[in-house]
Structures are given as C-alpha cells and as structure tokens.
C-alpha cells in the first residue's frame, strides 16, 4: 500500500517504519496516525516480519510533536475524542503489537513524538536526541499516554518534573532515568537498532509475543501479572517453537523457529 506520510521498508525479518514529514519535523497529524495504524496492522499480521523499528525522516527529529494547527480551535469534546482516537489508533496499538517495536529516536522527540517512543517496547536514542513533553506550555496536558508511560519508565518524580516544567532533557539524562535503553552516535543509530532487531529475531516469535504480553500485564488495571505469566508460560509448552527450541538445545543445534 502506498502512503503519503510514512515509509515502510521490509528487510525480513525486520521492518522499518519512517514518519516522513521532514519539513514539519515529522509532526503527527491525523492522517499520519491513520497511516501508521494501517502499516502496524499489516506488519503485525506479516509472518515474515519479527521486529519493527519506528523512526523519523532526517537527522533532526524523530517526531517533534503533534500538528498543533489541526486542533488549536477544538472544543472540549473534540479534544477528548482526539486523545481517545490517538490512543486507540496508534499509541496503544504500538504497545500491543505482538512483535517487539524499537523506537530509533533520531533527534527531537517532543510531545506526541515522545509519547510514540514511550509506547514502543525498546528505545535507542542518538546522541543528539532531545526528549520532552511541552504540552503545559500550550495550556494542555500530554494526551497520548504521556502522563502514564513517562511515570512508568522514568519514575513519578521525574515525570512530574518533565511534564510541569515543559522542558527538554538530553539523551544521556534520558538514559540515566530509564527513558532510553541506550544512546549511540547519530550515524550508528539505525545499524544499532537493526543489530538488536537481528538478535531478537533469532529467538522464538511465539515466546517473544507471550513475554511482551506478560510484561505489559503488570501495567493493566485489574490484571495480575504473575497469573498472566503462569498462563503464557503454560501455553508455550503447546507450541512447535517450544519443541524446536528444546530439541535443538538438547542436540546442541541452532533452533529454526517457525513462529508456530
């Protein structure tokens, strides 16, 4: 499918999704969010793809926020719908992917851009990355999961500081507080992400999907993460991947996982 605002490159077993609006610093508008939803749905169903990398076009910005001119005149109800639709179409969709999503944060990740990165399962930043949630400087709050995921990743105190000050932090500080998994020089960012994706792709797709589901269960209201882990652990014993993995280990061979 052809897209206007994003690029999708398949390098099986990896797919790279690029927000391609460099003149707008890759800002998220509603059309881009819908295109990302379509692409992610397709990639989640594609058995040849095991890891997805999300990044922004160019070297200045991952995603520098939402497209403010789209909603500057919204009413309260329109604002509520904007937030709810964004959660459903993109931010929750990223988090709920059955295969790992790596955010390659190549520059500014502000507002909705940082919220997109935080929805990913893993975040690698370039050394020129700058991260922040500036929404209160516009008279609004983060509306795409920022108030929740930032506290989960960086802690309550750091989230309060970043959100209320509307300031940006540098990549090294983001790594120190757990917001980024790693920081690398800008020219090395994409290859670093692809190398990590390659290591992930050597493992069982079924087990990875079960692991993602189990980890995320700890952050859902009314769900006991330990119970979810027990359930998913048991399900693994009924998969072909489990039989392949244990047989290969016992025979001192490399497993050939089929994701079944």
Low-confidence stretches: none
Query: Into which percentage range does the β-strand content fall?
Result: 15-25%
Mean of pLDDT: 95
CATH superfamily of the largest domain: 2-enoyl-CoA Hydratase, Chain A, domain 1
Work out the count of structural domains.
2
The description of the largest β-sheet is: 6 strands, mixed
Number of helices: 10
CATH architecture of the largest domain: Alpha-Beta Complex
The string of secondary-structure elements, in order, is EEHEEHEEHEEHHEHEHHHH
Strand order of the largest sheet: 1-2-3-5-7-10
Question: SS-based structural class?
Answer: alpha/beta
- Strands, count: 10
Can you tell me about this structure?
This protein has helices at residues 30-45, 76-95, 112-119, 146-154, 156-165, 171-176, 189-201, 205-217, 225-236, 240-250; strands at residues 6-11, 14-19, 51-56, 61-63, 101-105, 108-110, 122-126, 130-132, 168-170, 182-184. By secondary structure, it is α/β, with parallel strands linked by helices. The protein folds into 2 domains: 6-201, 2-enoyl-CoA Hydratase, Chain A, domain 1 (Alpha-Beta Complex), CATH 3.90.226; 205-250. Helix 4 crosses helix 5 and helix 8 (205-217) runs antiparallel to helix 9. The relative contact order is 0.11.
